[in-house]
């Protein structure tokens, strides 16, 4: 089936709003994501039957929920995302981008890995040249790091400006021990979009895993104020020599962002080689339905403790397999 993002009605004003929304969505900062929501909302008002606009709106609402807000605001944003995407699917059950957006919700909010895999496969059936990113995120969540990397490397030539694709390549490559290539992918994401909070945070984490304290701190300090900066600074300082500063940065992240960043705090305790506290924060991440749990099986510092009985118990609790081809940090 031929996929199109144009409104079947031919409403050019609605299509113009859709294209404006897509422009801001690709910039991947909170302010730009909210501008994208405004434009996609405008497109649905101009043409209430515009399925692609509803799907794009739901995708952006999910990104806000997963990356920038917490608590009741996140729950409300997730519900709006579900409603928008399901409305898109009612309007056009064969719309690949709607199935793609639904996959993201199933992974990040619902932790329904089986349904997410089915939705990703449906996206692939409908748009095989555009579904590699979606399939990669599902395979990564299920612990298939090599498959995830292969999918991203195969698909990137068809969409060489896909910041999210480089971000996830940077996330999965360390799980294969390819740290230099991971850093290169994160830097490429930042070349495309220098304002990407996630890309900078990911580069910080890569340097931290390499033990490069100076580079990790330098990148973390470039983050603007907010949750990404708090966690990036805490991560960077854990591998430095100033233990007082490391502890203080961790406590700042906990005090300010515990509700939004329980998984990232668990990662910090993994870097600190404190599995008891790491597992406590993983439990909190599960209670919060933290989107970071999708990264569990490709996270080298956390995987240091994959042979701990608590790791298998946690995987079972969240419905993930207990095996992975990812490499743990020594």
For this structure, the CATH topology of one domain is: Serine Threonine Protein Phosphatase 5, Tetratricopeptide repeat
- Known CATH architecture of one domain: Alpha Horseshoe
Unreliable stretches (pLDDT < 50, length at least 5) are none
> What count of helical segments does DSSP give?
17
End-to-end C-alpha gap: 48 Å
**Principal-axes shape call:** globular
What proportion of the residues is helical, as a percent range? 55-70%
Biggest sheet character? none
CATH homology superfamily of one domain: Tetratricopeptide repeat domain
- Structural class comes to mainly alpha
Question: For the residues shown, what is the average pLDDT?
Answer: 94
Proportion of strand residues: under 5%
Number of strands: 0
Radius of gyration: 19 Å
Would you state the CATH class of one domain?
A: Mainly Alpha
Order of helices and strands: HHHHHHHHHHHHHHHHH
